[in-house]
Amino acid sequence: MKYFLVTFGCQMNKNDSERIAGFLNFLGMTRSAKAENSDLLIVNTCSVRQSAEDRVHGLVRNWSQLKAKKPDLTIAVTGCMPGRDKDGKLKSRLKGVDLYFPIHEMGVLSRWLGGADLGDYLELAPARTSRFQTFITIQTGCDNYCTYCVVPQARGREKNRPAKEIINEVKIAIENGAKEIILLGQVVNNYRDPDLPLPNLPLKKGEGDSFVDLLKELNKLAGLERLHFTAADPRYFSDAQIEALKLPKQVNYLHLPVQSGDNEILRKMNRQYTREQYIDLIKKIRQAKPSIAIGTDIIAGFCGETEKQFQNTVALYKECDFDISYTAMYSQRSGTAAARAFKDDVPRLEKKRRWQILQELMEETTYRKNQKYIGKTVSVLADKCEAGICSGNSSEMKLAQFAGAKNLIGKILDVKITSADVWVLKGEIILPLPNPPLIYEMSE
Ligand code: SF4
Questions:
Q1: Which domain holds residue 406?
Q2: Are 38 and 3 in contact (CB under 8 A)?
Q3: Span 257-285, pLDDT tens digits
Q4: CATH no. for residue 360?
Q5: Of 251, 279, 300, which residue is a domain's last?
Q6: CA distance linking residue 384 with residue 390, whole number of Å
Q7: Ligand 1, atom 8: closest residue by C-alpha
C-alpha cells in the first residue's frame, strides 16, 4: 500500500509528519510522490492563517475528485484544523474525508489501517527528512492564550516530555548522523521536566529552570555539534537562559517573537510583556553574547492598530536591529478571544501596506547587517551541493554558499565570507592547514 503525505505549517507540523511517515513505514506502507497512485492521502494541516486553511480546502476538493474515480481511496485530515474544529463546521466543508483527527489521536489512523490503538504519538519513531539536522519536539500545546492564536484550541494545554525521553531521542538522532538538533515547543523556554517534583516557590536565582538543565545536558553529548531551539517566549526568558546561550554547542541565533512594538496592542494580544521589557531583554542578550543574530515574528494590522501604534512597532524594530523577521498580516481566526472581543477593522490594503513597510525595513536592516560578515569566517553546516555550489546555514541561521562537492554534505565547515546580500552570504571554505613542512638546517 502507498501513501501520499502533504504538510502545511510550522516546524512542529513537519516534525509531526515525520512521525506519521515513520508510523506508516513501520506498517509496511511506502511513501509515494503522487496522489494518483496512492491508497491513502493524508494532509497535516495548519490553522494559523485563513490562507493556510483555504489551501487545505482546495487540496481536499482535488482529492475527493480523485476518490470519485477510485472509491477505495482513503482521505485523512489531521493537524491543527481538526484540533480546533470543536463544532465540526470546518469538517462539514471538507467533502469525501474518511478520517479527521487531531495529531495526538493518531490511534484513529492506526485502527483504520487494522492496527492497535496507540499511546502517546510522540513516542512514534519519526522518518527523518534530513540526516544531519533533526527537529525534536519537547513540548506540545500552549497555556498562554494570546488572543489572536488558535494553538491552545488546536493543540490543547501545554504538555512537556520527560527530559530522559528527549535526551534518548537526541542520542538516537546523533547515532544516525545528526549534527544539529532543533528543540521544538510553542513556548519552548517554558519547558519543565514533568518527572521532576514542582519546585518550592519563590525560586532561588538560577534554580529550577529545567529548560536550562536540558540545554546543559544536551551540550554534554559527544557527536552533537549544534543545538538550537524555537520558539522562545520573551515573558519566560530568564537570566539563566541568557547565560545558557553561551553554552558551547548553542547556535549563534535566537528567535524571539515580539508581535508588536506597542504596549496597548501587546495588552490586547495578551502577550504579558511591554515593549520596554522586550527591548531590555534584547539588550541583555546582546550584552551577554554580542555577536548573536536575533530574529522575530510580527503581526501587522492587529485589531484597532492605529498608524501611531504601527509606527511604535517600526521604532522597536529599528531599536532591536533584528537580523530577520517574519511578518504576517493579521488574520482573524474563529474561536479566538480576539475574534470575540475585537473588530478586525484594519482594511486589507492597509495591512498589506504595513506588511510592506516592515518587509522593506527588514531587507534594509538585514542587508546592512550581512555586510559586516564580509571578511569574517562563519561556521556552516553544508546540507546541499549542486553543480559545484554548496549551501547551508551558518550558526547565525544565515544561508551561506560556497564552491564545493557533494562529499561536503553533512560537514560543518569554516567559510570565509567574501560578499553578502539580503538573503545569502557567499564565501570560500577555509581548509584546515596541512602540517607545516619540515625544514632541515644544512650544516656546512
Ligand atoms: S504563546 Fe501565544 S502565540 Fe505562541 S502558541 Fe501560545 S498562544 Fe499561540
A1: 377-429
A2: yes
A3: 999 999 999 999 999 999 999 999 999 99
A4: 3.30.750.200
A5: 251
A6: 5
A7: 149
